[in-house]
Amino acid sequence: MPELPEVETVVRDLRPHLGGRTVTGLRAGRQRLRRPWSRAWESDLVGQRFGEAARRGKWIVLPLVSGPRLLIHLGMTGQLTVADAAAPVLDHTHLVFALDGGRELRFRDIRRFGSVTLLSGQEELERFFAKSGLGPEPFGLDRRAWRAELASTRRCLKAVLLDQRVVAGVGNIYADESLFEAGLHPGRAANALTAAQAEHLRRAVETVLTRAIDCRGSSIRNYVGGSGLRGGYQEQFRVYGRTGEPCPRCGTAIERQRLAGRSTHYCPRCQRQRRSPARLGPSVVC
DNA sequence: ACAGGATCCTGGGGGC
DNA sequence: TGCCCCCAGGATCCTG
Predict the structure, then answer these.
(1) N or C: which terminus of chain A carries fewer CB neighbours within 10 A?
(2) The whole model's pTM is what?
(3) Closest residue by Cα to the C1' atom of nucleotide B7?
């Protein structure tokens, strides 16, 4: 659920509240997450001070100054917030890291697809990412490598954008929005793109993600940032979740189709299988 | 290599 | 009100 813009927003929200804070305790619920947490974490972490929160793809990295790294994935419904220790603890809160200064870092996840892992240090973190084959960040992608990547597969564009090994951080919403922005049909084979279209798509992904970050991400159901605030980009979706509504560019009804196992939304006129993209409409600012 | 399905979960919404 | 079915920002494993 949370994709790159939502994760980036969480990280930006956490930074000023978490950096420099010392862990004073750990409480955990009974229900298991995607990866099990360990009792030993408490002794590993108590007395340790947090450094600057970071993001890699959809992963949140919370470094401890002395070396260990907390690695967190929000899955579909994960929330990571810093709250006052006195604030009520919501249902489905699975891990609470007590901090000095009367604050708490809380991990809440209704569907429990998320995960929290404690790694020994930067090396183990890098091994973890390497093992999963995590691809490059979408900002400042190498154009040649990107084009070569697309040219190397017959998979459809939707599947390629969702593949975290190709580009890290794009999920279902921003894949659809990026393809609309680029005027490309989600079912189009990646290796059928011209060099110009590949470049169009590369820029569209950057554009859409940047706009979404500027709006603090999208809140459809559960997502909140690190301070508990919702995002605003859902107001600007052009195709995602707009099945049957008029395309903002040409007025044709938006269609929905299952692709790469996911609900996929597109304009059948602006995003044809063959024809080159329509001209991009004016950007909306939130 | 790749598509498609099932799996891990909870909760919301629609239809009856 | 209840029940049943479908749907959901993800990742991973298995089958054909």
Answers:
(1) C
(2) 0.94
(3) A113
What is the C-alpha to C-alpha distance for residues A277 and A182, in angstroms, rounded to an integer?
A: 7
Active site residue A158: no
Residue of A12, A262, A269, A272 marked catalytic: A262
Q: In whole angstroms, what separates CA A192 from the centre of its chain?
A: 27
| Tokens 């360990």, located at residue | A38
Rounded CA gap, A190 and A184, in Å? 10
- Checking if the pLDDT of A279 tops 90, the result is no
Contact A49, A102 (CB under 8 A): no
Chain mean pLDDT for chain A = 92
Contacts of strand C, CB cut-off 7 Å? A 1-3, 6, 34, 57-58, 73, 75-76, 111, 113, 132, 162, 164, 171-173, 217-223, 261-263
Closest nucleotide (C1' vs CA) to A260 is B3
Helix/strand/coil for A147:
helix
Q: At what angle do helices A172-182 and A195-214 cross, to 10 degrees?
A: 130
Query: For A115, what's the count of Cα atoms within 13 Å in the CB-facing half-sphere?
Result: 9
Compute φ and ψ for A93, nearest 5 degrees.
-85, 120
What does the pLDDT look like over A206-218, one tens digit per residue?
999 999 999 999 9
Of the residues A21, A56, A58, A216, only one is catalytic, namely A58
Mean pLDDT of A236-241: 95
pLDDT at A275: 52
